[in-house]
Specification:
47% helix, 229 residues, alpha/beta, binds zinc ion, globular, 6 strands
Amino acid sequence: MDQRLEANPLITLLLLIIFLLTGMSGPSGQSTPQLGPSESSRGALAGKVIVIDPGHGGPDPGAVGISGRTLEKYNVVWIARDLKALLEKEGAKVIMTRDGDNYLTLDARVRLANQRGADIFVSIHNDANLNRQIRGTTTYYYTAGSKPLAAAVQRELVRALGSNDIGVRQAPFYVIRKTWMPSVLVEVGFVTNPAEEKLLVDPSYRLRAARGIYNGIVTYFTSKSAATR
Ligand SMILES: [Zn+2]
């Protein structure tokens, strides 16, 4: 070291101050922790708030199967539970509007999603028609902002079930019209079609339905985050 610097106590003091300052604010500081590999690879669902809404419940059975024994309100809550488990495994925060045989008004379902600041809202239903030949899967949306979610869910759900693809349709159903976030209403299949009624009470078919909806949600969030990157 330069003898003149060492000889000057004022400069020595200045060097000491500079050393302390750079030491404290340097790259070894604790102010910018890096994400670990487990956190950064959690994927598109981490932290997403997802409201799942099994239709009907309690005194409202929803659609009644062609056999007279199948009720929509039971079929949809099983799919919702399977879907919840799949989403939570990937780090999503899932809120069910109901998880038992109870009834909520349509407005209560909407308020729950709006108040909890949901990222998306997914209402699950079974369809019905006077024509028992009609079968297949439909996903409804209302706002333009909900259409990409509807398209992804419909595509993946039909793929998972191998069901008749009725398509994505726009309709002013209350729960998808009044919610503030991207919202879809999924009609998994027709309980008024004898073959589809049998499938909709089969636990393995319900799990496939849940997987299909799940894959659609993952696709939606993945393409959304890719678009904003
Ligand atoms: Zn319904």
